[in-house]
Amino acid sequence: MDWWMWVLAGIGLLVVELVTPGGLFALFFGVGALVVAPAAAAGLGRVGQWLLFTAVSLVLLATLRRRLQDRLTRRPGAPVDSLVGEEVVLLGDVPAGGEGAAELRGVPWRARAVGGDTLRAGQRCRVERVEGVLLWVRAA
User: Fold this and answer.
1) Taking Cα atoms as reference points, which of 29, 35, 36 lies closest to residue 65?
2) What is the pLDDT of residue 29?
3) 70 in the same domain as 19
4) Between the chain's N and C termini, which has fewer beta carbons within 10 Å?
5) How far apart are CA 105 and CA 65, in angstroms?
6) Residue 24: pLDDT band with limits 50, 70, 90
């Protein structure tokens, strides 16, 4: 097969992958066809082209399909920015600029006091920002 036919086949298979839901099969065969195109242009025989196409496509399919599917279907975690503005209850005293513990949605968190006042145990506070598992809180 001429090199340009491999390019057309590769592009066609990539388009098929884009317009069909799920699967992730045509993608690897499309890439396989595009890999064969330069080899065909360099003079690789027809049998060699088909063998290379088959080998590249199957190796890519076997090694990358699962990882790519996992990456594409991974759901993002709950956005921590949505916690900003929520009310927490302090589980212990939190000195000004220091850290303590707070409960938010029934889960204990580390809390850091914003501002110059010491926050007392049982006091209700608002979340100003979130850094990892640390809540920056201010008296409500």
Assistant:
1) 29
2) 94
3) yes
4) C
5) 38
6) confident
Q: How confident is the model at residue 75 (pLDDT cuts 50, 70, 90)?
A: low
Q: Examine the domain organization and report whether 18 and 67 are in the same domain.
A: yes
Give the burial class of 33: count Cβ atoms within 10 A of its Cβ; 0-12 exposed, 13-18 middle, 19 or more buried: buried
Domain of residue 51, residue span: 3-74
Cα separation, 49 vs 58, whole angstroms:
14
Residue 42 pLDDT more than 70?
Answer: yes
Assess if residue 31 is contained within a domain: yes
Identify whether residues 90 and 57 lie together within a single domain.
Answer: no
